[in-house]
Amino acid sequence: MTAAPLFTLCVTSGKFGPRVGSLNLDREDGTPVIRTPTPALLTATSRGVVPHFSRDSVQITGAIQHIQLPFESFLDRNPPVLTLVGGARPLHQFLGYETDKHVLTLTLRDPSDGRKMPPNGNDFMSAHCTRGVRKVNLPTWKTYVQKCKPDLVVALSDTPFTPPPHSQKRMTKSIERSISWLADFLRVLDDPSASCPRNVLVHLAGGAEPHARGEFADRLTEPIEQKDAVGLSPFNTLDDGVAGYVFDLLPLHTTLAAEACRPIEPSSPVDELLKVSDSQRSSPDSSIRLAELLQASLDPLPVHKPRFVNSPVSPHEILRLVREVGIDLVDGFWAQRAADIGVALDFRFPVPAESSITSADCPAPRTRKDGKMDLGHNLFDSMYRHDHSRLASSFSDGHSAGQSHSNDLPVCPCGACSPRSPASRLLHSSVDIQSWQDSQRPLPPSALQPPFVRSYVHHLLHTHEMCSHTLLAMHNLTVLSAFLEGIRKVLGREFPKDELEKEIVRFEQKYDEDMVLWDEAATMWLDVEHARGKGRLARERGKQTASTMGTAA
After folding, report:
1. Average pLDDT, stretch 194-214?
2. Of 300, 323, 493, 538, whose CA is between 20 and 30 Å from 141?
3. Where does residue 148 fall: left (phi above 0), alpha (psi -120 to 50 degrees), or beta otherwise?
4. Structure pTM?
5. Are strands 40-43 and 34-38 parallel, antiparallel or unpaired?
6. Between 284-298 and 249-259, two packed helices, what is the crossing angle to 10 degrees?
């Protein structure tokens, strides 16, 4: 039986522009094909797990389907533990993901990690783990991939993580190495146990230079010379062996920030907990530059392969890339990072009517001086101390929606807004059994419960409870998934391109892109984080003294 194509386009505007498709994973092992409508969400992980999530949290979060696994965090041991698992699906088995639901993409480096790295060499790539920097050469990476058996894998690419700007010589070297590494990754020699990796994705190299990016794409589509064709049959070009394309936006943002003379790294010891991406912001101008760079890469390439985008910094940027370029899977790191710093996302696309986003019992996000609304709520803020409403005003919760038929808000199905009672009970003794049976109002299994409220999450954040970030991450990923679903619905209208343009303008007019909320939340999060550890009591006494100074009668 012929395998289903990895990607199918349903609606397209040509080589560039908004598009709707379906990513179809056929493992050719008798299991059902996993189909995902695109644009879709790609969930980020750390050490193989979704940050703040247990296995149960992953299972109840429907937004999590495509998962990206950076392998570098497992390099602290040799051999890496993932290569010792064995079986048909070692990654799913070891990390607890469901084979019939979750699609795993393996990449060497974390695309959201913008720390300075030693330069790559001609035959190795630098990766970062808990024990420092490790050098990974191509044969080793191929061995890891063969043993881990991911659903999709990203080929090694020589992306400079040294401070920009980068010289033309460095860009040329980056292109040469990336092409050479891709060819060797696809090459199958006489080893009978070896096979060409399936569903190989390639990062489109070239940095922030359109000509360099176009040169790399041209090299992908050039016929393979006879002297280099050993082991590459039946491919006529390297692109024939590539299943899709990857764009890492973080190094591009870093380069654009350097060109604009903006700070790109934390400037003081207090900021050590912040990531490089925390200071990156989007704007119409930066989105235009990014679109030009991505278009330069895609211009020589076929249109029918999926396009993955890592580390966008705002929904505004995602919308513009959907409109100007056409992207299919979007990394959710931005939404997950918002959960780290205590932000509960609260926005929708397309923007609903004003009457449906204002509610007396559930306040909307703060409106700034320019009249634009925040993208969510900074739950570290003391203003939420007595706010007993659900996390998002633009979504209803499952419990309220089930009791009121007049509510026209969409329901947020996340575990924070629509929690359910346990499907089963752990009864440890006869006393527990008797207590459960004697209950006058036994709780039915899997019944919708009232949502977790802002004041409760505010309390959890200030008491350093890890479950606060779990609740926020479940919610934020669900909101971002609903945002992408909204894009698909708009593109399903009669005139998709015009309709999308109109809705993007409304979104830009409604929601703040300057991310003032993000800066405020990061500051408060740092204050709470630094209140822990050695010397905490002394710092708290000093803070209390400062706050009460001059207030004595």
Report:
1. 88
2. 300
3. alpha
4. 0.91
5. unpaired
6. 130
